[in-house]
Amino acid sequence: MTEYAWFGALCDDDYEFLGVPDETLRSSWSHCRDIVLRAEANGFDNVLLPSGYSLGIDATSFASAIAVETKRIRLLLAVRLGELVVPQLARQIATLQQIADGRLVINAISSDLPGETMSSEDRYQRTTESITVLRRLLAGKRVDFDGRFISAHIDAPRIAVDAPHDPVIYFGGLSEAARECAAQSCDVYLMWPDTTAQMTEVMKEMSSRAAAYGRILRYGWRSHVIVRETEREARAAAERLLSRLDAATGSSIRAKSLDSTSAGVARQSELRASADADGFIERHLWTGVGRARSGAGIAIVGDPDQVTAKIREIRDAGVGTFILSGYPHLAECDLFARFVLPQLRADEARVA
After folding, report:
1. Nearest CA among 134, 117, 206 for reference residue 169
2. Nearest 5°: phi and psi at 228?
């Protein structure tokens, strides 16, 4: 069954006009709570709770609160592994899993400590070691581990012993070190938007890497979406989204991101540079969001049938998880749920 997830916008990433801060859309408990509750009401399977150091509100604190206000939707908690002591993190996740009644899943972020800069190779090696130790502790087992960066000789916390589980871990990254980490460690390999042909090559290569470790990966697509009743209206909405952005502001926003020099961001920039005059690399893949956002910077743009067809194309290529977002997030969540999600659910009903 394909998973359709929405985006929680905890990192001050909600706008009516990209690059123009709006106090009513700024990350807060009340605003982000409304997004998650709307995503659940609209039938999404999961919601990404992103995490940043300098922007927005704390994802883990938010997850503990929203878990008791939701009943069905899964919570994809972004965890910045470089900032946390792994045994403490294991106890925290096990506790959150109890609060969420088993609905918590993890988006592992290979982060530096704030103010720290490690090489990509070292950082991803530390991430691999962190996930290895974390999985064992959450399984309720003792760890005796000495790696290059992580050393742990400790019993699992009582809460993990009482309710052991193997966490589902989402992870993304395009560099050689990131791919190797993903092949060894994650369950769902997340990709930022690209052409279907390029995405297929990445999945083929990653499946080969994972097989060398006796593992099988699932795949996810993280992008924005702009859907309207007609393609003309969708393109007009895309143009309006950028209508108050100047180049200097966009550059400043991108430069502030902690991942602004990553291989994935470089690929998004390359795609943006190759787009047509209106910012499209394909008829329904628009790179304009990347002018004011580091990371995933491409949106699927079109009418309901066009957006649905593009998602079907990506799904049929092997992607089983879609993590989507749109601006403003409440409004676009409703539009996607009204125009596209019923068609995708109907596909699943026919297969069943």
Report:
1. 134
2. -135, 175
pTM of the full predicted structure? Answer: 0.94
Give the pair of three-digit tokens for residue 112: 């530096």
CATH of residue 148's domain is 3.20.20.30
User: Over its length of 352 residues, how does the chain's per-residue pLDDT go in tens digits?
Assistant: 999 999 999 999 999 999 999 999 999 999 999 999 999 999 999 999 999 878 899 999 999 999 999 999 999 999 999 888 999 999 999 999 999 999 999 999 998 887 888 899 999 999 999 999 999 999 999 999 999 999 999 999 999 999 999 999 999 999 999 999 999 999 999 999 999 999 999 999 999 999 999 999 999 999 999 999 999 999 999 999 999 998 777 676 666 654 556 788 888 889 989 889 999 999 999 999 998 887 789 999 999 999 999 999 999 999 999 999 999 999 999 999 999 999 999 998 887 7
**Can you tell me which residue has the tokens 């003792």?**
142
Pair of tokens at residue 122: 């070292």
Q: How far apart are the first and last CA of the chain?
A: 9
- Assess if residue 264 is contained within a domain: no
Cis check for the bond before 328: say yes or no (omega within 30 of 0): yes
Task: Tell me which residue range forms the domain holding 142.
Answer: 3-222+319-351
Q: Is residue 310 in some structural domain?
A: no
Helices (H), the chain: 29-41, 59-66, 86-99, 120-138, 158-162, 176-185, 196-211, 231-241, 247-256, 263-273, 304-316, 329-339, 341-351
Answer whether residue 145 is part of any domain.
yes
Backbone angles phi, psi at 235, to 5 degrees: -65, -35
Number of domains in the chain: 1
Domain assignment of residue 306, yes or no: no
Distance separating alpha carbons of residues 284 and 300, to the nearest angstrom:
5
Question: Do 69 and 34 touch, CB atoms closer than 8 A?
Answer: no
Q: And the tokens for 108?
A: 């592992």
Token pair, residue 129, equals 């070691």
CA distance 80 to 127: 9
